[in-house]
Amino acid sequence: MKVKQIALIVLVSAASAVLSVWGYEKISAKKGDQIGNFGTGVPANYAGFFDGKASSADVVDLTRAANTAVPAVVHIRTKIPARKQTNNVPSRRGNGNGMFDDLFDDLFGYGPNVVPEQRASGSGVLISEDGYIVTNNHVISDGGGGVASEVNVTLHNKKTYKAKLIGRDPNSDLAVLKIDGNKFPFLVYGNTANLQLGQWVMAVGYPLTLETTVTAGIISATGRTININRRQTAAGESPVESFIQTDAAVNQGNSGGALVNTNGELIGINSAILAPNGTYAGYSFAIPVNIVKKIVEDIVRFGDVQRGYLGISYYATDDMSEDQIKQLGIPTSTGGVYVSAVSEDGGAFGAGIRKGDVITKVNNVSVSSGLQMSAQLASFRPGDKIPVTYTRSGKEYNTQVELKKKAGTFADVAGVNLGSRLGAELVSLDKTASREYGIAGGVQVRKITQGGALSRTRMGEGFVITSVNGADIASVDDLTKALSQSKGSVRLEGIYPGYDGMYTYPLNLEQ
Q1: Residue 255 catalytic?
Q2: Does the annotation mark 173 as catalytic?
């Protein structure tokens, strides 16, 4: 009897449990799936997250990416010769705001007379099988006028090569080197337009005193501006910053190294770290490869960086006080870049943009600072057309702006870049000066930086270059083209205003 009672109780209990589950599922089905803290359904930010699959995230395997990237990342050792200090300023880029730092040690502080010879090391990335290497500008220069006179590159296989500096761009903190040879391993370019927050990435380089080192992390932000490139940007030039921020561990020596995705594609060049106390604090910053590609191609093809300009003067709302924003009548809800003046021969004027307009988007990306705007323009050249969104009297407009060369002439832009390469300030003579000197034109050397290529000649400041290897030179543009097409030693000829006769100086382009 007891056995029957126990069996009956078990049967009733099981039936109740089954009915309870069945009833709950019926009720839930009528109300709909309710995932969330308060039964309000799936939040909009989870769209595409619940796809009916209950599996966990795919396991990330970085071994193939590491094996692909490591052979193409090189160790760079540089020697910057001693130079005279023209004034009592820091011998390198300065301390900025103390929060961010490039990946080199501060080797020297304030020096009253002479900056000693500097030896340092960094990293670089092979980007072609014939030996082109991209690295940071601050790897091969000290930011105070000194440029490496000797650059040695060691590959992962321990082979060492002498490298030639092809060109550099302080505005974006990039430089291009070349080693002789072929069949080098190299990294293919990825696409930083497709980056996602939380995406796994890997940093490869030669930090501290270590050999090839690989670290991994995730992308924690994109389009970061930290105002670090201003340290090495020439007066009147705009720094270019749109960093990829990651938590992949990097340290001094990682400068110029590779940031790669899980496919082994190059997506950035490691450039800076967050260092409030002088050491790595968990975040690093890389130059996006979409900017790298354009800068490198310009340097290799043209010998300098060709930048397109909107043709405006502006105030960034990020840098303005609330009173200034109210005074100018800028809508606080939109932000953007306030146009304070427009050049009538510039692209912006031709596209209908006028003083008082507020530019809110460039290339379909929101901008609220000059750095953000410069970053969007950095991937384009003069003649390219880009979409620009602006507001006027509370109404939004969209237009296409054809970018122009910098106000003045192309030689102004070329002069800054060629001057950086040769270590001098170069200026095309205007017609008035040319007539006064009795020549058809030329390039005047107004300032020579110790340690630069021209400082290794006997040339003096004020010299006017009128020919290269017998070919006439009338402008910085002519000089840029002539030197980009030459190898080894070239012969620079010209005059000193106020002195009789022609003077000749040999210039070794391989140093």
Answers
A1: yes
A2: yes
